[in-house]
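Quick one: examine this chain and its backbone structure tokens and tell me how the chain folds. Here goes:
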Amino acid sequence: MEENTKIIQSERNRFRSSFVATILFSGVQIYQILIRVVKSKFIALYIGPAGMGVQSLLQSTTDTISAATNLGINTSSVKTIAAAYRDGKSELIAKNVTVQRRLIWITGLVGLFICAVLAPMWSRVSFGTSEYVWPFVMVSMIVLFDQLNKGELALMQGMLRKKDLAKANVIGQSFNAVITIPLYYFLGIKAIVAALVLGSLISLIISFTFSRKIEVAKVSISWRETISIGREMINLGFFLSLQYVLQTLVMLVVRNYVSNVGGVEEVGLFSAGTAIVTTYIGLIFTAIATDYYPRLAGIQSKDEMQSAVNVQAELTILLLAPLVVAFIVFSKPAIILLYSSKFLPIEDMMYWSIGAVLLQALGWAVSYVILAKAKPLYFFLNELFYNIWGLPIKILCYKYWGLTGLGMATMFTYALYLVQVLVVAKKIFDISYRIEMWRRLIVLYIPVVAVVLFKYFFPKTSGYIAGSFVLVLLALLVLLRLNRIMDFKSYLKERKQVRGC
């Protein structure tokens, strides 16, 4: 009896920790999106479409070079640092951090070199002229600054410095906007290069200001030991980069097929629908991963891992379900608000795409186990097979059902991916979902299906009223479930006592 109580309390504490981290980093993500929107509005006003085009081409080039040269170390190093931090091995932490920073400097300088030396080529490829050679030479600094910045953020993430990580992101974005917007106001198009480089440098300075608070012992490491320790980071990072390239390639094939069959306009519609899921709904996944990934990397016990995965999966679908229902109910005004009435043809596609998010959440929570426990080849193969059979499903669904078919393909592929990743996790780690999780998923899908049916079979006004009623009811049920798990009253009482001390 006493042991069961300890288990329940342990899961409650884990749920509370995950919930607080999710709320914290979701807020950060929302704030960053708002800052980018405001900044983009001002920049568009001061430099116009032509200036925006120049800025976009310069920025996209540095982003591409950075993605191609960073070897995924900013993500893979989180795992090695978090594992050493969990074990409390200060010397190992120091070695991992030293190696991480060396690798980041090397990859950052390589990226800078590629951007600067090949500036004439980038200028011709991007603008069809040699006029932008020196701008590309100047913005090559961004590749190094961004790599160093992400390295410091990865250090804070691996050391579980949640508040410092959140502050660094928020303050960095804020200072970036406050300092660069006046440059565009006074200098117009001439400010583009300076604003991009200065904005990147500001973000680096802010992140370094917070990361330097972390006490890391100074150690002397030979280059041979650097290679030995860094091999794990590089192996994992390489497969992460390869997986990103694969994913990008699949999306390129799908977009080209849509363009050839349906035209450029349908590509734009498909891209807009995809952006809604990845940017606005995806911010929840990004927020959760910021805390979940390093925590998972530090877990050694199989039982603890099983508990962590189930807790995280349940929290994720509980938080996402009301968002999914809300978007379906108000899909039309949401699409018009985010884009315009010209994008309303994606509404049916979005029902399927948004509805698939709950399945995606369950697959996502398990896939991070493969990533966090340093099985890079398994992780890549898992993603490779998903893309191999996912591509023909997307193409066939579009061929027969158009844009709506692409939404259906999203539902089908995430359902199959969930089965696949569960088989892999069970085989390698003996991890699976409890029966209660499947019951919870079925219960949460009932209101999702209900509001879709309301949209199709109810008159416009009645559909909104019925859908809103379901949304409110679902939100209350989710709050009751969260309270049952977390016990908000005792949690707030404990927090007040801690602050009182």
Summary: Residues 234-501 form one domain. The chain has two domains: 14-221, 234-501. The mean pLDDT is 86.
